[in-house]
Amino acid sequence: MPHTPEPNEDDLAAITPWPPVYYAERALLGALLSEPQHLADVTGIGPEAFSTAAHAAAFAALRTVPAPALTEPADCAAVFAALRAQSSSGRAERTEHITWLGKVLTTAREQARGLTAAHLHDFISACSDPRHAPAYARIIESEYARRRLRTAAAHLTHTARDASLPHPLPATLAEADALASVVDDIAAAFPPHSGSLPRTPTPPPTPLHDGEEAAQEERLLLATGTARPAEVESMRWLTPEDFTRPLHAGLWQCLTALVRRQAPVDPVTVIWEAQQRGVLSATDDPRDLLGFLTEPDVSAPYLGERILHRSVLATAHHVSRRIEAFTDDPANTPYQLVVGSRRALAELTAIRNRWHQATTSATTTRSPRDTPKAKPRAGPPPTTAPPIHRVTR
Description:
This protein is 57% helix and 0% strand. With 393 residues, the chain is an all-alpha fold. The longest helix is centred in the C-terminal third of the chain and has 29 residues, at 300-328. The two termini are 60 Å apart.
């Protein structure tokens, strides 16, 4: 039976344990405090790479205060005792070391007032071999890379779903570029080698927009494409994956297949093609499909852009959540983070290329104001959807 603590009992087991990098940070600080000459061996990290303010302040002070020229390893116990007593006893070299430690402590306390001489002693005690300082620094660099990547991915996630932005797509793509830049930085610090992709499960896609509004626009596009198949041929930048409903995705695939075969296109032929391809389920009534396929005649490219606009944002959101999941798995190495992130970002690059193609095509220059109105029974295209903003890579 699990133990239930009393109200006044200290529940130490409930305290979240520190991750391994925390102890690597302590060991590195201890190595540099006891043998400051190893500071020259520590590259690739700065104070921002540390996980706590106290550790960051101590490392910044170590890099700020000029180190003494020591020729022997420090006697940790003696150094600590002398530091606490502010004593100058012992050899001259040890006196210089103690004086330097006092300056480091004073400098570090400007950023972390809670630091004491006891903390420096704890750092020194945490390091079993100061010669391992480069290995400790590499561990810290790895975890800092993970945190940077997660932060950049979280910014992309937030931007992609922020409905309050006046121009969501350019802002989202800018965050995607920033995320890709972080991935490149990590790849430069950790050159790739043969290894497996992250085995972290991919989170399921999350809807970002009003599902019924998106479905209505998709139905409008299918009806328009059926009425004017010539416009469909110029919209190769729109794929079934951009649709929010599987039925609509399947019907678009049927419609484009008929157009590219130069077969007759009308509601009946589209539904027959859907049956042949296994798109229709037992619950899909052909009469309903005939109804919406024979309705409006609006601008297909304009509707296609709106659908693709929504799909780009959804893809960016899903990609960022995948990368966040990679960073949340501590088993993933920096190399796996780079490989997995680049594989995910490739999906976003592909749809960005299609967006660029759609918005720079001569067939999509028609203004929404020039779009013919739909027939009354189906209603005009929704006006509450986010406007289309044309961007180029």
